Amino acid sequence: MLEFLGQRYTHCDGLTRRRFLKAGALGLSSFSLANVLRAESEQGVGSSQKAIINIHLDGGPPQMDTIDLKPDAPVEIRGEFRPIATRIPGFHVCELMPKLASIADRFAFVRSLVGADGKHDAFQCMSGFKANNLQSLGGRPAMGCVLTKLFGSPTDAAPTFVDLMQGRPLVRNSARPGFLGPSYSPFRPDISKIFPRELEEGMKAELAALGAQHTTSLKLDAALDARRLDDRAHLLDGLDRVKRHLDGSGAMDAMDRFHQQAAKILTSSQLANALDLSRVSDQELARYTAPASSGSRFYTADDNQATRKLLLARRLVEAGVRCVSVSLSDFDTHSSNFPRMKHALPILDFGLHALITDLEDRGMRVGQVIGSTDRTASRATSRPVTYQDIFATLYHNLGINPHQTTFIDPTGRPQYLLESGQALRELV
Asked: Any residues with CB less than 8 A from the CB of 223 and at least 6 apart, and which?
């Protein structure tokens, strides 16, 4: 797993924060596609059994309260938390994260990420690009949407990209397909009944404006069996054929693709079973359930069961999903930072430990610290890393060369997956 901390930026309240991105490349059960193997052959990468889990911490916890503590800095910078030693000699983390400290040798910590866009959505953390890049053409696609374009098929029983960033992606549109078009959008099952979390007032209004049909249903209407669904799909195809000939925008093809995969998923139990925690043993649920927090829980923050989102992510990967995004809240501490961190950080600490130890048999051994910052954590002093460096690393480990692979944009011009960035040599 990789852990990335970002350059300081200013929130709406004037407080400086750091964007916090976690992304992991981890093993899958067998998942064989000819184009994946071809891409990996060209890259010299030997295995196609890889996927991405993107854990986004809403709001971005301060770097100096997590993995880059500054005990010698002025009191207004260093805060009240003490550093504790980890399994990596000379590397310390916050005292609220003892489980992370005990498995630090399984992580790569990047403390010198620069170039944050400073937006309230997570788009840069899911694409490597700022929101305004190619905006006139529809914008850049998120990485999961790129993988859907490269590897996905309407006949897959599980979508390539599943976005579980409850609330945030729907109102802030973090995981968007950009100029690739709507057929490469992520699947977004509604997990709000499993993980209740109150949204901010402004986000509630945004979500309400989307109407009732803004998530992906994974249940087939009881009155409509698989045969009737197939008959309706053929009828719809016939009715749409004339429209398709008249449509020069590609929107009809996009709808066709989405309808095909939606029908496939509805008639297969693979994805729905992965999202059904009632199928999980009590022992496994307990492994992913954090103890009740002793800190101050803000009204938009997750509770201690939010760590089960990581269990869902692992189960989706095992079901064949190649990219999963989840979120934990609420790290956008405009006030009461330390009491709220005492609630949120132990939950994060427990969840990361549960996920990584659960995946230990997949051969993950990293244990690196990349980059450093000055005494106030306001400037990278060594090994500055860009967002596109991070995504170049992830693409490389998936067997994709982002500087050779292109997509045709709406104007007919080829666009490379990344404009710049090199895979981090320590992680390839």
From this structure: none
Residue 184: how many other CB atoms lie within 10 Å: 26
* Token output for 44: 């010299």
Question: In angstroms, rounded to a whole number, what is the distance separating the alpha carbons of residues 52 and 55?
Answer: 10
- Distance between alpha carbon 301 and the CA centroid of its chain, in Å? 18
**Is the distance from CB of 86 to CB of 40 less than 8 angstroms?**
no
Enumerate the β-bridge partners of residue 2: 23, 108
Residue type, 293: S
The tokens for 22 are: 């976690």
Q: Where are any strands of DSSP class E within 113-174?
A: 113-114, 161-163
In this structure, what is the dihedral angle of CA atoms 330, 332, 338, 342, given to the nearest 10 degrees?
A: 20
Query: What's the predicted TM-score (pTM) here?
Result: 0.80
Cis peptide before 256 (omega within 30 of 0): no
Q: Which two tokens stand for residue 261?
A: 């995969």
**Cα 10 vs. chain centroid, distance in angstroms?**
23
* 3-state percent helix, strand, coil for the chain, nearest multiple of 5: 40, 15, 45
- My answer on whether omega of the bond before 330 falls inside 30° of 0, hence cis, is yes
Phi/psi-derived region of residue 383, left when phi > 0, alpha when psi is between -120 and 50, beta in every other case: left
Q: Looking at the chain, how many residues does it have?
A: 428
Report residue 212 as tokens: 């009732």
- 240 phi/psi in degrees, rounded to 5: -85, -10
**Which residue has 């430990």 as its token pair?**
353
Tokens of 214: 């803004």
Query: What is the Cα–Cα distance from 406 to 417, expressed in whole angstroms?
Result: 6
Q: What is the tens place of the pLDDT at every residue in 112-152?
A: 999 998 887 889 999 999 999 999 999 999 999 999 999 98
* CA atoms within 13 A of residue 247's CA, in its CB half-sphere: 13
Distance CA 192, CA 190 (A): 6
8 Å CB contact between 67 and 85 = no
Phi and psi angles of residue 69, each rounded to the nearest 5 degrees, phi first: -65, 145
Quick: pLDDT tens for 381-411: 999 999 999 999 999 999 999 999 999 999 9
Hey, which residues does 382 pair with through a beta bridge?
A: 372
Q: Cβ distance 276 to 295 under 8 Å?
A: no
> Bridge-partner residues for 68, per DSSP?
none
CA 362/CA 33 separation, integer angstroms? 21
Asked whether the beta carbons of 261 and 156 are under 8 A apart, the reply is yes
> In one letter, which amino acid is 118?
G
